[in-house]
Write a structure and sequence with these properties.
single chain, alpha/beta, 6-stranded mixed beta sheet, 30% helix
Length: 694
Amino acid sequence: MTTSIVRAACPHDCPDTCAMLVTVKDGVATEVRGDPDHPTTAGSLCTKVSRYTQRTYHPDRLLYPMRRAGKKGEGKFVRISWEEALTEISTRLGDIAAHSPQAILPYSYAGTMGLVQGESMAARFFNRLGASRLDRTICASAGGTGNQYTIGKKIGTDTEQVQDARLIILWGGNPIASNLHFWMRVQEAKRQGARLIAIDPYRSLTADKCHQHIALLPGTDAALALGLMHVLIAEELIDEDYIARYTLGFEQLRERVKEWPPERVAQTCGITAEEVIALAREYGQAGKDGQAALIRLNYGMQRVRGGGMAVRNIACLPALVGAWRHAAGGIQLSLSGAFPKNEAHLEHPELQRQHGAAARTINMSTIGDDLLRPASADFGPRIDALIVYNSNPVAVAPQSGRVAQGFAREDLFTVVLEHFQTDTADYADILLPATTQLEHLDVHAAYGHLYMMANNPAIAPLGEAKPNTEIFRLLAARMGFDEACFQESDDTIAANAFERKNARAAHFDWELLKQKGWQKLTMTAAPFALGGFPTPSGKCEFYSARMLAEGLDPVPTYTAPYESVASNPSLAALYPLAMISPPARNFLNSSFVNVQSLRDTEGEPRLEMHPADAASRGLVSGDRVRIANARGTMQALLRVTDKARPGVVVGLSIWWKKFASDGKNVNEVTSQNLTDMGRGPTFYDVLVQVESVA
């Protein structure tokens, strides 16, 4: 028996991007474990990824190309050859492109975060084809935009410094479930005396283990940040030297936050004025005492109408108190902006320019409406072909009923690259088997640490599965695309994935990276201790001229949710409960839902409700309930618990519809309304009513 250990990297949409060691015996992967030498992975993997072999060798893996044999959505297919699949796809796409290439749309997101198997060969293919572009907004665009207006890029506190913080505010996230290795550092800080405060409408696993939990109403985070700034400035708990040297627009900010005294904030957020004052004093005093205060901001709180501004407001706080002076202070939303990706080489955007006019852009968060739009002067051609890879939109896109209706169009030619027969795959005309992370090569950046990562293939592809890159290479050849970039190997693409001329990655060496598995960017420990923000002014911008030019308020403000008791009382009279749908611990978006051991742990779709809301409806734990609004309905088992605050219900997600008793999931009730900036979805800006099914 031949045994080897292969260095790999977790591909999933998680900030941890773990370094993995894959044990292979006689060509079979038998174990996946964390690399004990990688500083952030530290030898541990989450429950999901530690069972990765169950995913790769799952009995339901797609191993051969298939053609639809029933109605769309029925999931009936017959096996065909790659020759047949490639011929049909290239012929259909060629016919559509001859009339209007922008009638073809790619749809993908972060099923893999790899720079090779994500948007390299695929992007080249669609650029050369002249297809419509996809605005990939579904997760982070609102918060990312607000963050960039304020501090310039997605750069922040290095996770390896977190254990030295003495005040840690966990705002809008649940790292125990979705950022495990950050949480390990937080626990170390706690053992050293750090105080932990969670800000979240829901008392999550993480909030349960913090010293304090502030349960504000969904969509009101921006108001809380304004109130904190009001108290900090009024009580002179600010770093005037840092403000004078490294910020822009303090006077405008001072005037704005005068409008947000603690009493107004308390009324808006559904908390007490004392909570606002105490949090501001604690945060400001940490700065006065020379202690590192860290805000770990996550994307849950930006999935509302004012989500971009909420992140912007919170991103102002560290500069106000000088928290950036400390390596363990500041804020971390994402570290992805630190990685100098060579996108020009990965995607070859010049291929699209040969088509003349710029391609139109379709927002992935409004795919439900856009698939049902007719051709028009404003919209352009009807979408006639859809190629889905690294995503499961029928399950994850908002207003799922509309999404399914669009995918069910008989005149829509749909190709899906997948590992499994997902909710989306059930609507495919042609279904293509893709390799998993253990079967292909890739290189990764991260957004929760600062390491470039290599993924070496551990085993040969199962069945007839192929890497995404190879599928698009083959399609390019069938379409007659003869540019040299379509001949590049995955190894060559990976070797040029980062800009070596950038000082942070000047030492990038792909051959060495494959051998070691990981390599850290060259970064200073405290990135903004002396200013140097990558904004137009080089400062943290409390006032943003860019925002003004783009029609936005240039100073931090508050935008109420589309759907809340306060902002829309007539709607709330019909649907009085706010609903949020954070990730279930054993799923990662819609990945891993079909792994039996993980799904067994989750049980079935559940809704958590505060005892007062349950009592007023005559509901008890174990009841099957219907969650409804004008967009749709879904069913779940009720769990009555004070983890949910009054007026808010929580549906941990995202379930595949086919595993729910009613064939539906939480996105039946979410809307296609977009955020204030970044054109993102508003998954947590939802009102519903809940009643017994019986």
